UniProtKB/TrEMBL annotation:
The gene is hslV. Gene3D superfamilies: Glutamine Phosphoribosylpyrophosphate, subunit 1, domain 1. This is ATP-dependent protease subunit HslV. NCBIfam families: ATP_dep_HslV, PRK05456.1. Keywords: Allosteric enzyme, Cytoplasm, Hydrolase, Metal-binding, Protease, Sodium, Threonine protease. A double ring-shaped homohexamer of HslV is capped on each side by a ring-shaped HslU homohexamer. The assembly of the HslU/HslV complex is dependent on binding of ATP. It holds the Pfam family Proteasome. It is found in: Cytoplasm. InterPro entries: ATP-dep_Prtase_HsIV_su (IPR022281), Ntn_hydrolases_N (IPR029055), Proteasome_sua/b (IPR001353), Proteasome_suB-type (IPR023333). Na(+) binds at residues 159, 162, 165. Allosterically activated by HslU binding. It catalyses: ATP-dependent cleavage of peptide bonds with broad specificity.
Length: 176
């Protein structure tokens, strides 16, 4: 769950790792800082696949560095990863999704070639993603809450509804 508002941005992730209908781990860290702490990345899906994609994404960021405050570097890295993910035989088999954000932009990256920048400043992935997204949109429209609080509360709401989402929430913030 990623939220952007008033020059501030936050990403939150739950801690649940499920295998079929079994909770294998409840305290996983699905949200982390990369690129010397300047980018926050979160994932949903198969953990090993997501870590492979995060490594590839960080390499793309290093290739396409731009001056601070310019969303071009993050966007270019996201597009390049999506292209590789779609065309590379090894990467094509990976089953995960990524959301990445820096001080100026947020993108969802998928294995089908999607690179999506959200319209309303919120985006969510994973089993509880639709529930968290709905809650976050309502909070954005009807409160003045900070992005970190919106992300945290939206995931808690999703955890009350979705059996594949728990309430062990980790939040990372970035200021523009």
């Amino acid at each position: 769950m990623a939220v952007r508002r008033d020059g501030r941005a936050a990403m939150a992730g739950d801690g649940q790792v499920s295998l079929g209908q079994t909770v294998m781990k409840s305290g996983a860290r699905k949200v982390r800082r990369i690129a010397d702490g300047k980018v926050i990345a979160g994932f949903a899906g198969a953990s090993a696949d997501a870590f492979t994609l995060l490594e590839r994404f960080e390499a793309k960021l290093k290739e396409h560095r731009t001056p601070a405050g310019d969303k071009g570097g993050l966007a270019r890295a996201a597009v390049e990863l999506a292209k590789d993910w779609r065309t590379d035989r090894y990467l094509r088999r990976l089953e995960a999704m990524l959301v990445v954000m820096d001080a100026s932009a947020t993108f969802l990256i998928s294995g089908t070639g999607d690179v999506i920048e959200p319209d309303e400043g919120v985006i969510a992935i994973g089993s509880g993603g639709p529930y968290a997204l709905a809650a976050a949109r309502a909070l954005m429209r009807h409160t003045t809450m900070a992005p970190a609080d919106i992300a945290r509360e939206a995931l808690r709401t999703a955890g009350e509804i979705c059996v594949y989402t728990n309430q062990n929430v980790v939040v990372e913030e970035i200021e523009g």
